[in-house]
Amino acid sequence: MLVRVAVAAVVRAGTRNWARWASSGASSPSLSIWRRKKEMGKEGLVVAKELKRFRSDPVRLDRFIRSSVSRLLKSDLVAVLAEFQRQNQFFLCVKLYDIVRKEIWYRPDMFFYRDMLMMLARNKRVEEAKKVWGDLKTEEVLFDQHTFGDIIRAFLDNGLPSEAMDIYEEMRQSPEPPLSLPFRVILKGLIPYPELREKVKDDFLEIFPGMIIYDPPEDLFEDNKQHNDRDN
């Protein structure tokens, strides 16, 4: 009898623990639709092909979006957007971005915005990136520190230091506790911009006193400065 009671207690405890895990997992970032593997169905493939065909014809493009894109299943719409981001089809990405945000199933999501901003950074689309950033602020989306670091690095790697530093200031004001690794990611991306790097380095040493930062040789800074001067 005692054994049966003990077993029942263990089962009940296990059930409660599983329920708590399932409940917390429901809102886990790992379950975000924007992080899952995205496979296009047949209708998604057709729509993607037609969108690319009509992209230079605004009238036919808008007509096709109203007639066909609006009927796509959520999984197909997400997959088409992800594929266009991979292909750097920024014009069509912005179109689908606006459509997604109007869908009944849409919920503000950190990874949705991260993917859009990184794609726009790769294509140097500053005005579109500012609009997306304004949208995420309106929706009160909060990036974690690692995501901040990745986005800032994307802007730096694509020659947009001013925009990168604007996002860095947002990172510094974030209620999320600072982490050293994102700072190191940013500092490495700032090697071509020694003056900006010194500012971030000072912040890093103030937040993480006693930690060591690797400084590249002076001639590397000089080589990068000359390279930037030629580009400008």
Written account of the structure:
The termini are far apart. The protein has helices at residues 2-26, 42-54, 58-67, 74-86, 90-100, 110-122, 126-138, 145-157, 161-173, 180-189, 194-207, 218-231. It has a domain at 142-232: Tetratricopeptide repeat domain (Serine Threonine Protein Phosphatase 5, Tetratricopeptide repeat, Alpha Horseshoe), CATH 1.25.40.10. Helix 6 packs antiparallel against helix 7 and helix 8 (145-157) runs parallel beside helix 10 (180-189). The longest helix has 25 residues, at 2-26. The model is unreliable at 1-29 (pLDDT under 50). It is mainly α.
Write out key terms for the chains shown.
mainly alpha, Serine Threonine Protein Phosphatase 5, Tetratricopeptide repeat, elongated, 232 residues, 0% strand, single chain
Cα-to-Cα separation, first versus last residue: 83 Å
How would you characterize the largest beta sheet?
none
Beta-strand residue fraction: under 5%
CATH architectural arrangement of the domain at 142-232: Alpha Horseshoe
**Poorly predicted ranges (pLDDT <50, ≥5 residues)?**
1-29
What is the strand tally? 0
Protein structure class: mainly alpha
Task: Output the CATH class name of the domain at 142-232.
Answer: Mainly Alpha
Average pLDDT confidence is: 84
Based on CA atoms alone, the radius of gyration comes out at 23 Å
Quaternary structure state of the chains depicted: single chain
Task: Indicate the percent of residues in helices.
Answer: 55-70%
Classified in CATH, the superfamily of the domain at 142-232 is Tetratricopeptide repeat domain
How does the overall form come out from the CA principal axes? elongated
In N-to-C order, the SSE pattern is HHHHHHHHHHHH
Which fold does the CATH topology of the domain at 142-232 refer to?
Serine Threonine Protein Phosphatase 5, Tetratricopeptide repeat
Provide a count of the helices. 12
